[in-house]
Design goal:
By secondary structure, the chain is mainly alpha-helical. It contains eleven helices and two strands, in the order αααααααααββαα. The chain folds into two domains: 112 residues, Orthogonal Bundle (Son of Sevenless (SoS) protein, Chain S, domain 2), CATH 1.10.840.10; 73 residues, no CATH class.
Length: 206
Protein backbone atom coordinates (compact mmCIF):
# COMPACT_ATOMS: atom_id res chain seq x y z
CA UNK A 1 0.00 0.00 0.00
CA UNK A 2 1.39 3.39 -1.05
CA UNK A 3 0.20 6.21 1.20
CA UNK A 4 0.26 9.67 -0.37
CA UNK A 5 1.57 12.61 1.61
CA UNK A 6 -1.67 14.53 0.98
CA UNK A 7 -3.59 11.90 2.95
CA UNK A 8 -1.20 12.24 5.87
CA UNK A 9 -1.57 16.03 5.87
CA UNK A 10 -5.36 15.72 5.95
CA UNK A 11 -5.25 12.94 8.58
CA UNK A 12 -7.81 11.43 6.23
CA UNK A 13 -7.96 8.00 7.86
CA UNK A 14 -9.81 9.39 10.93
CA UNK A 15 -12.07 11.99 9.32
CA UNK A 16 -15.62 11.11 8.31
CA UNK A 17 -15.64 13.14 5.11
CA UNK A 18 -15.73 12.66 1.36
CA UNK A 19 -12.05 11.82 1.40
CA UNK A 20 -12.99 8.39 2.75
CA UNK A 21 -14.34 7.56 -0.68
CA UNK A 22 -10.76 7.41 -1.87
CA UNK A 23 -9.61 3.78 -1.85
CA UNK A 24 -6.21 4.62 -0.34
CA UNK A 25 -7.86 6.53 2.49
CA UNK A 26 -9.99 3.48 3.26
CA UNK A 27 -6.89 1.29 3.23
CA UNK A 28 -5.20 3.63 5.72
CA UNK A 29 -8.17 3.36 8.09
CA UNK A 30 -8.09 -0.44 7.86
CA UNK A 31 -4.36 -0.58 8.51
CA UNK A 32 -4.62 1.83 11.46
CA UNK A 33 -7.46 -0.21 12.95
CA UNK A 34 -5.41 -3.37 12.49
CA UNK A 35 -2.42 -1.81 14.26
CA UNK A 36 -4.62 -0.61 17.13
CA UNK A 37 -5.47 -4.24 17.94
CA UNK A 38 -1.80 -4.89 18.59
CA UNK A 39 -2.15 -8.40 17.20
CA UNK A 40 1.53 -9.21 17.32
CA UNK A 41 1.84 -8.12 20.95
CA UNK A 42 -1.16 -10.23 21.94
CA UNK A 43 0.13 -13.19 19.93
CA UNK A 44 3.51 -13.18 21.67
CA UNK A 45 1.94 -12.99 25.12
CA UNK A 46 -0.71 -15.61 24.32
CA UNK A 47 1.77 -18.15 22.93
CA UNK A 48 3.82 -17.90 26.11
CA UNK A 49 0.85 -18.03 28.48
CA UNK A 50 -0.74 -21.05 26.75
CA UNK A 51 2.48 -23.07 27.05
CA UNK A 52 1.96 -25.02 30.28
CA UNK A 53 5.26 -26.85 30.53
CA UNK A 54 7.95 -24.81 32.25
CA UNK A 55 10.72 -26.06 29.97
CA UNK A 56 8.64 -25.47 26.84
CA UNK A 57 7.72 -21.98 28.02
CA UNK A 58 11.41 -21.16 28.46
CA UNK A 59 12.06 -22.34 24.90
CA UNK A 60 9.17 -20.24 23.56
CA UNK A 61 10.49 -17.10 25.28
CA UNK A 62 14.01 -17.73 24.00
CA UNK A 63 12.62 -18.30 20.51
CA UNK A 64 10.79 -14.96 20.54
CA UNK A 65 13.95 -13.22 21.73
CA UNK A 66 15.88 -14.73 18.82
CA UNK A 67 13.12 -13.65 16.42
CA UNK A 68 13.36 -10.13 17.83
CA UNK A 69 17.13 -10.26 17.32
CA UNK A 70 16.58 -11.24 13.68
CA UNK A 71 14.16 -8.31 13.30
CA UNK A 72 16.91 -6.00 14.53
CA UNK A 73 19.34 -7.45 11.98
CA UNK A 74 16.76 -6.69 9.28
CA UNK A 75 16.09 -3.23 10.79
CA UNK A 76 12.43 -4.23 11.16
CA UNK A 77 11.77 -1.95 14.13
CA UNK A 78 8.00 -2.35 13.88
CA UNK A 79 7.93 -6.09 14.61
CA UNK A 80 10.90 -5.78 16.99
CA UNK A 81 9.03 -3.26 19.11
CA UNK A 82 5.86 -5.34 19.21
CA UNK A 83 7.67 -8.55 20.18
CA UNK A 84 9.47 -6.75 23.01
CA UNK A 85 6.19 -5.27 24.24
CA UNK A 86 4.67 -8.75 24.24
CA UNK A 87 7.60 -10.14 26.24
CA UNK A 88 7.28 -7.28 28.72
CA UNK A 89 3.51 -7.55 29.16
CA UNK A 90 2.47 -8.01 32.83
CA UNK A 91 1.11 -11.58 32.41
CA UNK A 92 4.40 -12.73 30.85
CA UNK A 93 6.60 -10.91 33.35
CA UNK A 94 4.79 -12.74 36.17
CA UNK A 95 6.40 -16.03 35.10
CA UNK A 96 9.39 -15.46 37.37
CA UNK A 97 10.40 -19.11 37.56
CA UNK A 98 10.34 -19.25 33.77
CA UNK A 99 12.46 -16.13 33.36
CA UNK A 100 14.97 -17.47 35.90
CA UNK A 101 15.48 -20.49 33.61
CA UNK A 102 16.14 -18.38 30.51
CA UNK A 103 19.82 -18.62 29.68
CA UNK A 104 21.99 -15.69 30.72
CA UNK A 105 23.26 -15.21 27.18
CA UNK A 106 19.70 -14.94 25.86
CA UNK A 107 18.71 -12.50 28.61
CA UNK A 108 21.73 -10.43 27.65
CA UNK A 109 20.45 -10.35 24.06
CA UNK A 110 17.05 -9.17 25.33
CA UNK A 111 18.70 -6.38 27.31
CA UNK A 112 20.63 -5.23 24.25
CA UNK A 113 17.43 -5.25 22.18
CA UNK A 114 15.64 -3.12 24.76
CA UNK A 115 18.55 -0.69 24.76
CA UNK A 116 18.48 -0.54 20.98
CA UNK A 117 14.77 0.24 20.70
CA UNK A 118 15.68 3.93 20.90
CA UNK A 119 16.51 3.68 17.17
CA UNK A 120 19.90 5.28 17.74
CA UNK A 121 21.37 3.45 14.73
CA UNK A 122 19.62 3.24 11.36
CA UNK A 123 20.86 0.97 8.60
CA UNK A 124 20.38 0.97 4.86
CA UNK A 125 16.70 0.10 5.07
CA UNK A 126 14.21 -0.54 7.84
CA UNK A 127 10.54 -0.77 8.78
CA UNK A 128 9.60 1.72 11.50
CA UNK A 129 6.85 1.39 14.10
CA UNK A 130 4.39 3.37 11.97
CA UNK A 131 1.76 3.67 14.71
CA UNK A 132 4.02 6.11 16.58
CA UNK A 133 4.11 8.50 13.63
CA UNK A 134 0.37 8.21 12.97
CA UNK A 135 -0.41 8.98 16.62
CA UNK A 136 1.92 12.01 16.46
CA UNK A 137 0.06 13.23 13.36
CA UNK A 138 -3.32 12.81 15.06
CA UNK A 139 -2.13 14.67 18.16
CA UNK A 140 -0.61 17.46 16.08
CA UNK A 141 -3.75 17.76 13.91
CA UNK A 142 -5.79 18.50 17.04
CA UNK A 143 -3.76 21.66 17.71
CA UNK A 144 -5.24 24.98 16.47
CA UNK A 145 -4.05 26.12 13.04
CA UNK A 146 -4.71 29.76 13.95
CA UNK A 147 -3.59 31.39 17.17
CA UNK A 148 -5.08 34.56 18.67
CA UNK A 149 -3.15 37.79 18.23
CA UNK A 150 -0.93 38.85 21.14
CA UNK A 151 -2.49 41.33 23.55
CA UNK A 152 -1.65 44.18 23.46
CA UNK A 153 0.84 45.17 20.69
CA UNK A 154 4.08 46.05 22.40
CA UNK A 155 5.52 48.75 20.10
CA UNK A 156 3.06 49.74 17.41
CA UNK A 157 -0.69 50.02 17.37
CA UNK A 158 -1.20 47.50 14.60
CA UNK A 159 -4.55 45.88 13.78
CA UNK A 160 -5.22 42.82 15.88
CA UNK A 161 -4.97 39.84 13.52
CA UNK A 162 -4.87 36.12 14.33
CA UNK A 163 -1.57 34.38 13.67
CA UNK A 164 -0.86 31.22 11.72
CA UNK A 165 0.44 28.40 13.93
CA UNK A 166 3.58 27.74 11.89
CA UNK A 167 4.97 25.37 14.51
CA UNK A 168 2.06 22.99 13.92
CA UNK A 169 2.74 22.92 10.19
CA UNK A 170 6.49 22.49 10.71
CA UNK A 171 5.80 19.47 12.93
CA UNK A 172 3.42 17.98 10.37
CA UNK A 173 6.00 18.43 7.60
CA UNK A 174 8.78 16.86 9.70
CA UNK A 175 6.69 13.75 10.49
CA UNK A 176 5.57 13.30 6.88
CA UNK A 177 9.13 13.71 5.58
CA UNK A 178 10.22 10.84 7.81
CA UNK A 179 7.34 8.62 6.65
CA UNK A 180 8.18 9.34 3.00
CA UNK A 181 11.82 8.49 3.70
CA UNK A 182 10.73 5.20 5.28
CA UNK A 183 8.71 4.35 2.17
CA UNK A 184 11.86 4.63 0.08
CA UNK A 185 14.00 2.71 2.57
CA UNK A 186 11.45 -0.13 2.79
CA UNK A 187 12.00 -0.80 -0.93
CA UNK A 188 15.45 -2.13 -0.07
CA UNK A 189 14.04 -5.49 1.03
CA UNK A 190 14.22 -8.34 -1.47
CA UNK A 191 12.24 -11.05 0.30
CA UNK A 192 10.89 -13.99 -1.68
CA UNK A 193 7.21 -14.65 -0.96
CA UNK A 194 6.40 -18.14 0.34
CA UNK A 195 3.11 -18.71 -1.51
CA UNK A 196 1.85 -21.47 0.80
CA UNK A 197 2.63 -19.54 3.98
CA UNK A 198 1.15 -16.34 2.52
CA UNK A 199 -2.08 -18.15 1.60
CA UNK A 200 -2.39 -19.63 5.10
CA UNK A 201 -1.81 -16.23 6.71
CA UNK A 202 -4.40 -14.57 4.48
CA UNK A 203 -7.03 -17.07 5.64
CA UNK A 204 -6.45 -16.49 9.36
CA UNK A 205 -9.51 -15.10 11.12
CA UNK A 206 -9.12 -11.63 12.61
Amino acid sequence: MQVRWEELVQVSWINNSDVEKDSNAQDIRKETKKMSKEKTIDWVATEIMLTHSLEDRVRVIEKFIRIAQKCLQLSNFSTLNQILLGLQSPPVERFRRTWSRVRVTVRHILKKLNDYISLSIIGRYHIPFLALYLSDLVFNAALPSIEPAPQPPSLFQLPQQPLVNFQKHRTTAAIIKRVIAFQSLACGYTFQIDSDLYAKGANLSS
